[in-house]
Design brief:
Elements lengths: L1 H16 L2 H29 L4 H7 L3 H10 L15 H12 L7 H27 L5 H43 L6 H36 L4 H14 L1 H25 L8 H36 L10
Length: 321
């Protein structure tokens, strides 16, 4: 595991040299989320009006109001759930990713997700360019690099979406098959073990698709590959030929992510922010968590770049510490 650990450390070092990228990515995410947040805010304001519910919501969640609000809402407003307070929002997104229900969301939300994917394709191109070079980032260079790789990254994203869909279809078939085969089993522990193994397999396949996507983009940036298909095949070949290194880097950064998530759970804002001070504090805490997640994402990309360089014949005699 020394290889993955070394790459993870070098990935963090790469980010430290271009840390202003964090600020730019955070601003881009915030600007993208603000219109959606204003839409939900306006929807809540229309629902509350001048009623007594507004005073109640300052102290606690009114479940009767929430049920009526959801029945009358659509689009992004209908996604407002009590579980999305604090850490729950991250866990909800994780469940959508694992279950494949992300493809069953409201068409408006799917469209917003597709638009965000396009934005991320632009941003990640600029980020990878500077993580590779280590040069002092400039906005002109950032968007120039992002624009250079944009359409290639979009094509990779479309290909990966197809792979994700195949994994979800396999998952659906797998769990339906398990339900049929274990319906007469009376030992609950055995059934639970089988389902846990099946869930672990699905998660592994989803992580593999994510890694293939990352290394396809790394290959495009480092080798200036023009074909998204060939870059994706290069990503498949690299992941399969370096399973310990590629999976090890993901596990190391993933453990760091769990630590960040745990720390956030200790201070995550809940319901009951009734003053501007507590509202601003809750906003700042949640944004710090977002910045930490972006830092981990860039660290992972930097580590994958480092691992890819070390496995390249052209990098055999280079020192990337």
């Amino acid at each position: 595991m020394t290889g993955p650990i070394r790459s993870a450390i070098n990935g963090a070092a790469r980010l430290s040299r271009v840390r202003r990228l964090l600020v730019w990515l955070w601003i881009a995410n915030l600007l993208f989320a603000l219109p959606l947040a204003f839409q939900v805010s306006a929807s809540i304001e229309r629902s509350i009006g001048a009623s007594q519910v507004g005073r109640t919501l300052l102290e606690r969640l009114d479940l009767i109001w929430h049920t009526e609000y959801q029945d009358a809402s659509e689009g992004v407003s209908a996604t407002l759930e009590p579980s999305q307070v604090g850490v729950g929002a991250f866990l909800d997104n994780l469940e959508l990713w694992f279950s494949g229900e992300i493809f069953e969301l409201d068409p408006g939300l799917i469209a917003a997700g597709a638009l965000y994917a396009l934005l991320w394709a632009l941003l990640i191109g600029g980020a990878l360019g500077y993580l590779q070079s280590g040069a002092r980032p400039t906005l002109r260079g950032f968007f120039g690099s992002g624009g250079e790789f944009f359409f290639r990254f979009v094509r990779v994203t479309v290909l990966m979406a197809g792979l994700y869909y195949l994994v979800y279809r396999f998952s659906e078939w797998l769990f339906e098959s398990l339900e049929y085969r274990t319906r007469d089993v009376t030992v609950e522990k055995s059934v639970l073990s089988v389902y846990l193994l099946a869930a672990a397999l699905v998660v592994l396949l989803l992580v593999l698709v994510r890694m293939i996507s990352d290394y396809a983009k790394v290959a495009i940036v480092m080798e200036d590959r023009r074909s998204a298909l060939l870059a994706s095949l290069r990503g498949v070949r690299f992941v399969l030929s370096h399973p310990i290194g590629t999976l090890g880097v993901v596990l190391i950064v993933g453990v760091a992510g769990l630590v960040v998530l745990y720390l956030y759970s200790l201070v995550a804002p809940g319901v009951g922010q009734s003053t501007w001070t507590t509202v601003v504090l809750a906003f700042l805490v949640s944004q710090l968590f977002l910045i930490a997640r972006l830092a981990l994402r860039l660290t992972l990309l930097g580590a994958e770049l480092d691992l890819y360089e070390r496995a390249s014949p052209l990098a055999a005699n280079a020192d990337y510490d």
